[in-house]
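Dear Dr. V.,

Thank you for agreeing to look over these. As mentioned in my earlier message, I'm a first-year student in the group and I'm still getting used to reading structure tokens, so any feedback on how I've presented them would be very welcome. I ran two proteins. I've put each sequence directly above its structure. The first is here:
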Amino acid sequence: MSIELDVTTFCNRLKLFYKSWNDGGERWADSTAVAIPVGPNASELRYHKSAALHLWLFGYELPETVMALTKTALHVVTSTKKAAVLQALVEPAKENLQVAMHIHAKAKGQDGSEQMEALMAAISSSGDPAKVGVLTKEKPEGALCELWQQSLGKAGLDTADIAAGIAEVLSVKDAAEILNTKKAAHLAASCWGKFAVGEIESIIDEEKKVSHVKLSERIEEAIVDPSKSQVKLKADKVDIAYPPVIQSGGQYDLKVSATSNEQRLRYDIILGSIGARYGSYCANLSRTLLVDPSKQQEAEYKALLAAQDAGIDNLRVGSVLSDVRAAIVQKLQDEGQGHLVDKLTKTVGFGMGLEFRESANSLSATNSTPVRAGMVFNVSIGVSGLRREDADTEEAKAYALLMADTVLVTPDAPELLTTAAPRSWKDNAYFFKDGDEEAGEEAAAPAPVVHAAPKQMRSENPDYRQHANDREKKKMQQSELLQRLNEETLRQGHANERQAGSGGRLVSEVSAFKSIADVQPSSKDLLIQVDQRHEAILVPIYGVMVPFHILTLKNATVNQDGSVAFVRLNFNFGPGYEPCAKLPGAICLKELSFRSSDVRHAQKVVQEIKALRSSVTSHEREVAERATLVTQERLIKGKGRVYSLLDVWIRPALGGKGRRVTGQLEAHANGFRYTSPKGDTLDIMYRNIKHAFFQPAEKEMITLLHFHLRDAIMVGKKKTNDIQFYTEVMDSVQTLDGGRRSNYDPDEIEEEQKERDIRNKINRTFNQFQKRVQTDIWEKDFGDLEMEFEQPFRELGFSGVPHRSTAFVMPTVNCLVELIEQPFTVITCSSILLVNLERIGFNLRNFDMTIVFKDLTKDVLRIDAIPATSVDSVREWLTSMDIKYYENKMNLNWKPILTSIIKNPEEFIEDGGWDFLDAEGGSDAEGDDDDEEGDDEFVASEMSDESSDDDDDDDDESVVSEDDDEGSEASLGSDEEEGLDWDELENRAKEDDRARAHSDDEDAPRKKKARR
């Protein structure tokens, strides 16, 4: 594999190095030269400033290499192969930085003595006297490093530790470093939130016996394979920053060097720490999971969370690092948890980057290093030595709490990079014990009296309150969107104007013949004739052959009545017809009828008229579409290896007759080229691609790549904005005797396995192709477009009818798509003005979705017959995409509504804007339904009060009320009800019917008496 160095990055970073060095100060100890030796690669994971400096400058770690810098030169002693790679930096260093770069290549078999002498000579001449800056704490190994130490000792030069200077250079990250850090942080947080937590929950639920080390190994596998954490990152750039640490069971170590022990996971306080690296840049995350915690632990956890937020908030430009710990201590005292201050770790975090721990940037009480934009920190707040005396076991009495996050310092405010792993109390506390049952058992001991359960209203239920809070947040978000919606409507109303005409020739400007002399009938007989050349029909009127251009004709029909035929010609007519609108005072011909005794000729001429009209109309449509096409750039064929996808079909088809055949899709320098076996080609430019989709075959029969274009292109004779390339993963053929086969039929099992293998192979091929295009071409050469292949979220999809047939519609990151049935549906979310959910509230099985676009001149798009079971997921998705939606009980006629908005947008907004949609229920219909349900709680109370007034015995009434309440609670959601089988449920229903009938019989005389 050939290694290419980033020359620009090298020059920029070497310039920063020299700037810091030339500024001097105690950090560089007045050194005149800097020497950085690096030994051979180590098998274990280690962090050294020497290796970090190599990675920072060159992008690669150069083992067995000695690098020395003077104020004017850079010397490198290394092997011949590495010297050849570094040679590309010599000229840029001289031209951009005026730094002479000398590569001292050590041939294989040489010990490097000759090269080391040249290096020492350059160092000795760097100053008078020369002083060498070195990393005194590092003891590099290897023959070349030992030779360096011997040469340095013989020279007798003064040395000084310059670790602080190098730490300062590495502490501030540039844009590329920040991006790598963000990816590492996202990986660590996703691995915890989407993998590690699920593993721990599974262990607890199923009561598995898994050791800390075993669980740590599983999490490590999920880090090095990002797909297990549902993260799309290059696996070859991913690594662990340290082996994941899992601790529980009363034994906790909050040091950075902690490791997982062999004890099995206990269900008490579980500490988890994950460190990930991307492109060698580190990120860290720690979380605490609390199983059946006490009130004291809850208060302590919330106080630590608030203290961590206070510490993060102090990582602002202009403050010093010691302010972070001071803010944390102050917050703990303010929260009434001052006893935790003495149990805090000495440092509450440290800087991170290529080194996992930048010791010079530790968040201690005495570090006066100023905070600068571009720094990255691990803010870690942990307390140990805590006790819980009411724990069930001795080991559970001792516990610790720990939370750590990766934070980026920006010019404005600190940015938390590990938000994908929740920190809140409700997300990290687990309750399995039933406190009410325990309390009930304790109360039952002194007196064996059974008390009725206290009445609990539905609104007091935690799940209901959470649902109500979520509903309120959704309602507030939709209210905020309303103002933006009206502003956008007003802006689009001024910008949009309907464009009349199709873009082709106007009918009023069409002429079949330039003069009467050009009219040459093919026959002298007075018959209807078709002139293919001039695109006209000649009809006899009062003995004269009168020509009409075929575009003026609407249709032609022939009817036979015995031995005669009647030919009827209908012409375009009406206010929407362009010539009629252009010449309102003119008299227009609407219809001509002819009687012919030659039935065969009449039928033939009508067929010729229809064929000519179809041909000319198709040609006009093609001309009109081509007139609106945008000129595309020419395809530049890729040099070297060209990624290709073989045996794929294309939709829409290229055209032509014959059997449908597969072609080849190639990714070139600036676009795709599809080539059919017949030699037909179709080019799709990367810069013309608005959205790209990859949809693997799961429940469908095809795997596809789909491109939605910015500007339409011609495919065959049709203009289209959507191009799709696909492969069928199985033949759509049903075996006639398939229903008679056994489930254990070996032939059937083998056939199914074969189909699965084919499907998986095709999915992998398409996935590999799209990944290569995205990483090797789009990200490298077209980064400004920010293109990526989007994959539909199947779990958020729903069935509906966007066009002619039922299809499965799925959202992606930026779109709502349906890519199986033609015509395809691709809706860019940013182009949506609002969504109206129609036919909601009639307890129907289906509802409709109407999408109104920001371009009000476009017709709305309807997706009909969506199952009512999908309405909640649709609401959630619309809210998450910041799309305003309304709900109505009936379908609306949108064309006049949009026309009126375009005609006078100011009046529309003054009249309330889109609030008229709330008249039928609006976007708060969900909330209204819940409110109605909530009112039922109080209806029951009112009825109880009324009944108590009618009854003289209050005590009896209260007993009855309690029994009724218990019964109602059981009927609504008790475990006993869920445990009844069908026979018991049926018997209970019969008893209820008999009781209701008896009640009706008793009430009947009262009703009759009341009528009298």
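The second protein is here, in the same arrangement:
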Amino acid sequence: MSSLNHHGMELDGLLDKYLPQNGSSKPCRLLAALKSIAADIKIKSAMGNIEKFLPLLTTFLLTSVAFRNEVALNQPKRLGIRMEPDRNQSSSGAAYHVSRHEVRHFVDRPEMLDEIDRVLGDERSQLPRIAILQGMGGQGKTQLALRYCGIARSQRNLDYILWIDASTRVSTMRGLEEISEELSENNQGFEDSDARITFVRRKLTSRNLSWLLVFDNYDDPATFDLREYIPKGPLGYVLITTRNPVAERIGPLIRVTEMTESEAMNLLFKQLDAAEDETNRNAAVDIVRRLGCLPLAIDQAAAYIKAEGLPLADFLSHYEQSARDILESIPRLWEYNESAPIRNGEESGDAVAKTVFTTWNLSLTLLRPDTHLGTLKVAILSLIAFFDPHEISEEHLKTYYYANNPDQQPEWMYLFIDDRQQWSNIKFDKVMREFLRLSLITSLNTERKSSDFAFVSLHPLVGDWINLRQNSDIYRSNFERFTRLLAANLSSKFWEDPLDPSFFECKMSLAQRHQMEGHIASWMNLFMQMRPNLRPTMVDLGREGPVAVTAAELLIAQFLTTLEIFDENGLELLQWLWDVCNVVDDQMLPIKFGAGSLEVNWLCILPGLTEEAKKKGRERWQYWRTTPGTSGNDIIHTGLLQFLTALTFTDSMKDEREIIDLCKSELETLPNVERNMTIRHQLLAFILLAANRLGEFDVYDMMFDTIWNETAERGGDDFRRRIWPYHCWFFFTIYCLGRTCDSDFKVQFSHAAVEWATDKYGLYHYRTIHFRILKANALCMAGRLADAKAMAQDCIAIIISEGYGSYTYARAHVTLGEVLMKQEEYEEAYNAYNLVLQVQGYLSQNERLQILERCGDAAKRVNIGLADAYYTMRLSGLNDTDNCHEIINSTMDSWGIKLRYGTQKARQETLELLADGLGVYGIEIIYHKDGTPQRCLRESIATINLGDPDLSRRLTEDGTVHTALLERFGMWYGFDLLIRMAVQLLQMENIDTAEQAFHLAKTTFEKVRGPSEIDIASFIGAVFSYSEIRFEIDYDRKRLQDISAWARIQILEKRGEGMEDLESWWEDKTTELLSLMELYMEETKSQWGTRIRSKTIGKLSNMFSRVASLKPPRSSPSQPSSSLQRGLGFAHNIATSSVGPAVVELQDRSTLAHSQA
């Protein structure tokens, strides 16, 4: 670069020397020209030297340009209002004539500022370039414009930045007059206002001036055309703020949307001194959502919080009670201002504080509420304000119109009606578009593509503002109309089952249900505030029948039931209906009954309120039994069925017994005639359910035979289709699946139930889905696993697409899990069951415990720690009930899984489990020296000390212990638990106590009457196991021979019809015992000990290896996931330990099980 500079200077010197100077005479210039010719060689030489460096010069220049461009990309983006290149930039900046002030805590919205810059910088647009900020009041349009002006001022690209209040023609003219003083020179005088405005327009039209002119609050284009006042200068830029989208005729529209939650929270915290911790951030999210992320409202809320010294978490409760005060309140220094309203046709020209209320009051005045038409439009807005603001369908108003007689129509309804008295979409759209222009609604969708109706949305604060400006009488009247409107929309969709008064269904699409859910929630909030002053809103259902008139509030509660929405507010609504309805009034009686029944239903489902449901159910039933005028109708019977339903939810054996007693008592009063069949069979169905839970299968079978015979005598399937309600079909289908052995019959009956439900409710109704799930169960039991799996998966797909509740969803996944278990897809089955536990809904405690059992059943095939965790959780939950059957079944499940650990600690835990189980039979048992009795879950009948040498004598004299051990709960007798306890004690070398337990169990078994084949095989198998272990201790051959003979006698005495296989089973077991004995006789004691330990370790190792999928069985080729393999690592180490599983302690097994779960 130095050489290039040298040659350049040489060329410059030559040119200066030989070229004539400016102002030289002609002779001098001629002489210089002649000399230059002579010097041409020197000049050519200098030029040649420079040309050698041209490539280097080119590279340098390109590099320089790229560097400058890179720097420019990293600089803040320049505004669109940039200066023309041929103008000299002023160093003093623009003349700034802006009468508004930017708020100190402005939250930057860079995407909006960029969009303004893009529109104003578009060189293809008209001159002057125009951008219009359009949005609802309080959205921050003015503040965005102020920020843009501030940035333009700091960049010094303009001669003038000017601001005009364009809310009216007068304010616009006044603003231009004030600007004339800024633009005029030497105190130029003007004749009048027009002269001033003309001067400003002419001045700004000049080609030498650049300017930005803001027209703020141009909200009423109908009153004047702003284009009359916009200068046409080529270097000018115009920014307009407006609420009215009609302003887009002037220029490109930029819609100012609501702030994001993040921006809104930033604005809130900028004004407060509150720490941004988790508690405050959670409260802030709720606040900005409730205020619709409206900047002006958030500013006012922050000012109120500071003034009152409120914690953020307390603001919303204040807002719900004092919304008007908050939305109207402002601090003394307030940056938001607007022009004072017109009074008596004149403007004061003063500025007033701008609040949320004043913002929308301006929009309301543009509806001309002082005119008759304006009054009707305000009435429409007043009704719309009660809806959930997010999606209000035209359908709601249209349905309400057609539900009323002409003389019942509100006057404003005719704004939507054509000359033929039919609903007009065109007229509806016209009114809503006017509301949209004034920002009284935030959106309007008239496409009508996905439905036949338009949709509007409302800012939540607009609804608050409209409601707060109404006086109490008008507000109450509008709320009643809103209630009637909701009832009209619900009643047109409701369907009731005449055979099942407790059933009702609202036939709506999923989208319609979601929309109505939001509106009902809005209604409920208002109802809770107003209920002391309300009475039931009676509505005509427009149909014939015993219930032609009902209360709108009852329809709303019924709708919430179909959505599975049960909460405290709903219960208070139902209690209110019960309290205010007088049974003396014939119309009120069915409403009171419906409210009482629904309340009991809800209490059954809500967690922790089953006892309250039982109490209320009993009270309601007794009330109707003693109320005059109810004896001749079905109210008493229906009330009893409601009470029986409440009893089924308590999971109490005492309540199950009461169900049977009440049903039998009521059945005695019902003659066996056709008109009573529906109620008779519903009562019999409840007996079926209770007998099944009590394990009284003889009663269970007898009830089904009674029902089956009664229907068979009257026409079989046809009769059942005609008189059975849903619950009869449901309970009897479950009976067929659980008690009948004929697989084909199970499939046929469940198929008949599906056909009945499809005809009655439709293919995709949730009740039909219930029966399709039962049919999938039947197919599974029949071995048609592929069909069962496909049907279960199909049901799940329908449940998801239709948005059905958690109960149906859970049942479908349980059935899918059953199918997967039979297909030996244990991991998938576990996932299906576990998914049910995660469902957010209202699973009863009994249903939850059943799912825990299924999770354990699936998990024990792949992970014993996981299975142990689920069985333990289930048993813990059952111990809070009096369901002895399930407690014992669950105890034995846990016992079986803990045995598989094979450790001393696990054996001790199994002993404790069995002792706890015996407590269910009323027996307190002591099984070690200085021991204390285990706790008793029932009233104690006897205490057994297995260390007492006189135990056998005393038990022979007192038969209460034998009686208790002969009681059966679930699948187990008391002596079943005792014999297994004996085995455990023997394995732990407590020989004396084990012998006591063994003999007590054996002598008790001798007294049992009518055991099943499984009962006999299970007990005698345990006896043989005990005998094997006992033989290892003393090698007593005679003992084995005596046990074999005893077992054969018991089998011959107790076996019943169809138990012929038991004798061959006994022969096999005896052969095993004798082989064991011969083996002992052939080998030495030490050799036998070594062999048996080796054999035991090998068996355990194989078992744990298969479980861990380290050595998969032939029937289960699939491998579990790596996570499950890792979960079994510890158990496998135990099984393969060289010291044997009997002496390895499983440390902190509960922690392991928890981590695996």
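From my reading of the second output: The mean pLDDT is 78. Residues 931 and 983 are 19 Å apart (CA to CA). Does that match how you would interpret it?

Kind regards,
E.
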